[in-house]
Every structure is written in C-alpha cells, then in structure tokens.
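**Discrete fold encoding**
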Amino acid sequence: MNKTTKSILATTAIVAVSASVAGLTSYALMQPEKTQQTLAFDEIFQVDPNTRMAALDATQMQPVDLTQAAENSVHAVVHIKSTQESKTQTVTVRDPFYEFFGDMFGNRGGQQRQVQTPERVGFGSGVIISKDGYIVTNNHVIDKADVISVKLNDGREFKGRIIGTDPSTDLALVKIEGEDLPTIPVGDSDQLKIGEWVLAVGNPFNMTSTVTAGIVSAKARSLGVYNKGVESFIQTDAAINQGNSGGALVNAKGELVGINSVLYSPTGAYSGYGFAIPTSIMTKVIADLKQYGTVQRAMLGISGRPLDNDGQTMDPELKKKAEELGANDGVWVAEIVDNGSASGILEVDDVIIGINGKRVKNFAGLQEELAKHRPGDKVKVKVLRDKKEKTVEIVLKNEQGTTKVVKDTGMEILGAAFRELPDEVKRQLRLSSGVEVTGVTDGKMKEAGVRKGFIILKANGQSVKSVDQLEEIVKEATRSSDQVLFLSGIFSSGKRANYAVDLTQE
C-alpha cells in the first residue's frame, strides 16, 4: 500500500487518504467514434428519485439529527480494493568494476536481469451515483490497478472497470455491472456554509461502513498537493483517515457534497482536518469522463498570482502590488497567453474578482468556477481595472486554443500496437531500451508512414523505455498547442528513421 505524503511547514504532511497501485495498460486499435452531444450530469447518471431526504434545518432544529443522513449515504458508499499483480520486469544492474576498467566486456556498465515484482494491494472508498453501477472515487485509489474489486455495504462483490480518470482533479469513474443499486443524491456544494454539519462516510483503515461527523471548516482551500492540478477543497473536521479516499462527504440532508480525498496531518493519521473535492467540480468532471472519456477543460489563458494570503504571510512585493492595484483579494493577471480565452479582452494588471456573479477571492476559487465550464461556454468575468470594477464576457477555450470537443486521446488514436523491446533484440541491436511497433492499422501512425517493426527510441525528445511512458508522452502531446508527436528510432536492419505524427482530431 502506497502512502502519499507531502511536507508542510517542515513537520505537517498532506496525505492522499488511500493506498494506490501501479500496473500495466492494455490497448486496442483505433475505432471510429460518433459525434456526441454534451449532456448534463443528471441526464447521464440515473439517481433513484425515491430516496428520502432528511430535510433538516439547522436554524429550526437543535441538536441536528444526522441519523437519516447516515442511512441515506452508508449503503451507497462502497469499499474498493485495487490490486497490482506480480510482474516480471527487466532491470539494469550496475557493474561495480565499470568505473575502474570501463566497458571491457561490452555490457555498457551494467547487466540486464529479470526480477519479479511483488503483488501490491491498495484500499479505498467509492460512491455509487447511478443505479446502473457508476461509481465516483479518487484517481489515486485505482491508479494503474490491474484488478478492481468493489464490495457493497450489503456484502455483494463486483468486478470494477475504469471508465475514465482525471489526475488533475484526482477523480475517477468506475463501472460495475448491476441493477437497482443504492445511490446517494448529489447536492450543490456551492450552497454549503461554513459551520454547517457534514458526515464523512467511507472505509478508514480497511474498516467498512464508517461514519464520522463534523462541520465545514472552510471552502476553496488550495494545498498544492495535485502538482498544478485543480484544487478548491472543502475543509472539514469530520475525521478522515487512510482508506476514506473516494468516500462521501454528506450534508445533513443526506446529499453528496464532496469526495473525501486528503488529510492534513503531522503523523499520516487524522489530527484535525480533512479535505474533500466539492461536487461543483465533481459533477462536471465525471459527466465528461462518461461522455467523452476525458475532461473537457476550459482555460482562461492567463498566468497570475492570488492577492488573498489565505492565512499565509504575503510576499512584500506582492503586497505592494496589491496596494497599487487597490485590491484586497482576487487574482492578479500577470501575463496573458496568446490566442487564449482572455487574449484581447483582459489586460495585464487586471484583478479578477468574480465569475458569473460569484466572488473570486483566490486562485482556488477561480479554478473551481472555471472547472464547472467546457470550452465554448461564455462567462462574465468581473475585474478590477484602474481601481474600477468592470465586467467583460469571455468565450472559454481549451488548451489548444479552440472550442472543439477533445476526445479521449489514449493510444487508440495512433492506430497501432506496441510492445517493450525483448532482451534478445536489445542485445542484437546493442540497445538498452525501446518500444517496438508490432502492428499498424488505420490511424495517425499509418498516416505518418510508420511501419510495423519500427523501434521507438525517443518521442518528443524523451527516451522511451516502456509502453506506459509512451502513452504519457502521447497524452502530453495532444494537450499541447502543436499536437505533434516526433518519433526517432531504428529498424531491426539497423536503418534509422524519424517521423512526425499529427495528433490533431476532427
């Protein structure tokens, strides 16, 4: 079981609250896809309309009775077991005499050996959001798993398959085959108020069907744990521990308002605060994963810094800048991306203070509002310009600077099959690594002239050692403005070749 931690202020850690596994990915040859119309979350997932709400009003009822909320949610929260199977891998063992005698024996400083990796198992939680078996969880719960097992509160077990993942928000969509499964109503996290009672439901420490209670401590928190991903957490003091990842954060009505994801701890266990991904982000991301296989992410096309210190000491230069701009909070626009959404509309030194009538105080709040939208959506952006408020309308674009729908860009787009280079071929060609093209059908590889037998050594300047690595490079290339994959490699005859693969989609 992996435990993800991050040092905070030298002693405190940010912990992704489950274990994750690493595994292999299988690929299919590219098939034509039908153009799909964008659908809303409620049109995509089948929530049980007969679910009874607790309907409690904190202003009229004290103390708050959370029993019905717990009953609503506990049956829809599942236990997820993700397994990485044992595999044989080739590793290079360094020759201790290489530094002294050089490559006298032709092994280039090391020897290739086969090692058996151990089976690895991780545990987490998930939430059934549709009667036909769609489950939302954290990406880190099922990341690179070979086998996913889902166990319901009533003891039934199912095999799960991954529909889509989004590491940027740490969300994933899993499907089990079942009918009339228990679901939880999806609420509006935007309506949550600080101080409101919430429940954390999940499987901490591999203990099933556990409910803890607390309040909403803060909203729109950014922790820097997702490596430039989208972060706008709900902070709660409801106890969240390892194994709670992917579980439900539920309001007093019994509605899902967040997906539990991270704990804040000096020890790796609960010590006061946990963090959940709000449903305002979740609903759009999960709907995209089901409909398109990937997230339709809208970008504002700016770089800047928040003028809200969020409890931290503000940099003196930034504080001076805020005073010059006459802003107490918001997002300062330091740079505008060419051909981006904001190009020609926003100006450097604008301060973004609102999106569609909602106040924006920091970068997390800006990310949360943008995460609700798709490329092509129009948003009204309120800015502070020359110390005066001004509202402008912006049509949002994607990373490529267009409003087109981005399809799932897995290896299928290449229209080819691959394998890691066998040891025998490595020895013959005196190569340390590479990925061989074992078959080509209709797709981007064929269009570029790539033939069966081509051994990929580098892709976009990076050495390629595995099929998984090639997939990551392809995904990165499809998100770039150029959308080109430059391949360099060799054939078994010794002939070297280079190809430029156009990854743009109609």
